[in-house]
Specification:
Elements: E1 20-26, E2 35-41, H1 59-72, E3 75-81, H2 83-89, H3 91-104, E4 112-116, E5 126-130, H4 138-161, H5 167-170, H6 176-185, H7 196-199
Helix pairs in contact: 1-4, 2-3
Length: 205
């Protein structure tokens, strides 16, 4: 069985009465803003209907589910790694750092962390990466929703600071509009300097 088909039943772990967190990130691809990660420990006594990959939900549904998750989860935490950390470390390592911070911020210590994707950050507990986990494991779906809604809110704040870039419309992703505004207004303090479309506009030293 490939990683793509990995399910909870395939993991060598006794899930009964164990504290398990799901972990996911948001914002690896954008040219601006921090990368976010969330960790969530769901409460089996308070199931939340409709959890799935945040990218497959409407903005309104994500926002309503985020409220439910924060209300009913046993523990949740949202963390980030800054644009400067992304440029210093590279986006993969910055994402791992944000995930690590999210798990460390939980008010409960999980016995197992289930990570969306194909690699795990360095953690103090057992961890398992699950490809497409945000559509397979509810705790990862919940983390996906919290990371996405937190990042979208942060980009709205950046829009208030830098309205000329239209962050409210593209959320920092390299759309035609974003690239056009970048060329027109130059690089802002919140752009990721190591990303090629941004780097191309920096002064050559």
């Amino acid at each position: 069985m490939s990683n793509d088909e990995l399910a909870l039943d395939d993991l060598d772990f006794d899930f009964e009465n164990r504290i398990i967190c799901g972990v996911d990130e948001a914002g690896r691809g954008p040219l601006a803003g921090a990368v976010f990660a969330a960790a969530v420990i769901l409460d089996p006594a308070h199931p939340i209907a409709g959890l799935r990959d945040s990218k497959k939900l409407s903005e309104a549904k994500r926002d309503s589910l985020a409220i439910e998750i924060k209300k009913h989860a046993l523990a949740w935490y949202i963390a980030q790694a800054s644009e400067q950390e992304i440029d210093q470390l590279n986006i993969l390592q910055a994402t791992m750092l944000a995930m690590q911070r999210a798990v460390q911020g939980l008010s409960l210590t999980p016995e197992l962390a289930l990570i969306d994707g194909n690699r795990c950050p360095t953690l103090t507990m057992a961890a398992q990466a699950i490809v497409k986990g945000d559509d397979k494991v509810e705790a990862i779906s919940a983390a996906s929703i919290l990371a996405k809604t937190a990042r979208d809110a942060a980009l709205m704040e950046l829009h208030a600071q830098y309205p000329q870039y239209a962050f409210d419309q593209h959320k920092g992703y390299p759309t035609a509009l974003h690239l056009e505004r970048l060329r027109e207004h130059g690089v802002s303090p919140v752009h990721r300097l190591t990303y090629a479309p941004v780097r191309a506009l920096l002064p050559k030293i």
